[in-house]
Amino acid sequence: MRQRLLRSIRQINPTLIDDSLILLEFTVTSDQAGQRLDVFLTENWERSESRSNVQRAIKAGEVTVNGAVPTRVSMKISEGQNVQVSNNENAESPSIISSNIPLDVAYEDDDIAVINKPVGMTVHPAAGHTDDTLANAAVHRWPQIIGIGEPDRPGIVHRLDKDTSGLMIIALSQRAYDQLKEMIFKREITRIYSALVHGIPKSVKGVVDAPIGRSPHSRKRQAISEDGLPSRTHYRVDYELGDFAFLEIQLETGRMHQIRVHMDAIGHPIIGDQTYGRRKNLPNLNRQFLHSSKLEFAHPITGKQLSVKSELPEDLMRALETLN
């Protein structure tokens, strides 16, 4: 990947090339201020270079902003900042362990797969989870995805929280990965969730439009914030169960914990959510009642329209039966 990026850079400004020093250097103008770092570099690097490759370069430590390595590809840049791209060929890429963990595959072809993630499974390796994640299972089932996407989460184009179950897309080819990431950025993938919430919303249908950012009080929480990223969540009340409502929720954007933060913000937190809007849980439910139940999108390679559905898992069905 780095060699391909180097070729792209040489086509732009060969005078900057020094394999041990700076390859590219930009100064952010007033018109560019406020852009995401990955978007800024994609637009200024080379038109044919994919955004996912730019993101990988940022995460590999090959990009600095005013001399500092950014912690997020989505950081907002400011006027006058100096952005540099350097060669980091000696950087060690994190490896991922292949683990023989069964996966529930709802759809599969040569380029993509859609899986049903079980509750309790972490999507990619993190502290305390090095060999028991969805990523570990995916590289065992599809070894060809090594090198596709980010090193520690190959093939994964979007995520679900550990205690959220349901459908996720995995790219099995680089071409599919790049196209899927672009489709998510352009909001061309319909993601629908099933949720049970406390209380009955006043309106049968509604939209929560509130920016989300990192909570200033806890690094593990998100919060509504004026400085956050634009976030929109659509909901519809399917039916009522006493003091609870069963909702169909559609994401327009895909921020971390978006549904959970937005539903709590309007006074209807997800049942079982121990992080946002903590309230009494159902006696036989040990996680948040949130399930990715439907994905609709055009196949990234063939263009064929796909609609994949997932029924509620047993633990959520039992919770509904208790209320009924």
UniProtKB/TrEMBL annotation:
PROSITE patterns (UniProt xref): PSI_RLU, S4
Pfam families from the UniProt entry: PseudoU_synth_2, S4
Catalytic residues of the enzyme: D161
GO biological process entries: enzyme-directed rRNA pseudouridine synthesis
Record protein name field: Pseudouridine synthase
Function: Responsible for synthesis of pseudouridine from uracil.
Annotated catalysed reactions: a uridine in RNA = a pseudouridine in RNA
Residues of the RNA-binding S4 domain: 35-102
Entry annotated with the keyword Cytoplasm: no
Stored SMART domains: S4
CDD domains named among the record's database cross-references: PseudoU_synth_RluA_like, S4
UniProt keyword terms in alphabetical order: Isomerase, RNA-binding
Similarity section: Belongs to the pseudouridine synthase RluA family.
GO-annotated molecular function: RNA binding; rRNA pseudouridine synthase activity
E.C. number: 5.4.99.-
Keyword Isomerase: yes
Species name: Candidatus Lucifugimonas marina
InterPro entries: PsdUridine_synth_cat_dom_sf, PsdUridine_synth_RluA-like_CS, PsdUridine_synth_RluC/D, PsdUridine_synth_RsuA/RluA, RluA_PseudoU_synthase, S4_RNA-bd, S4_RNA-bd_sf
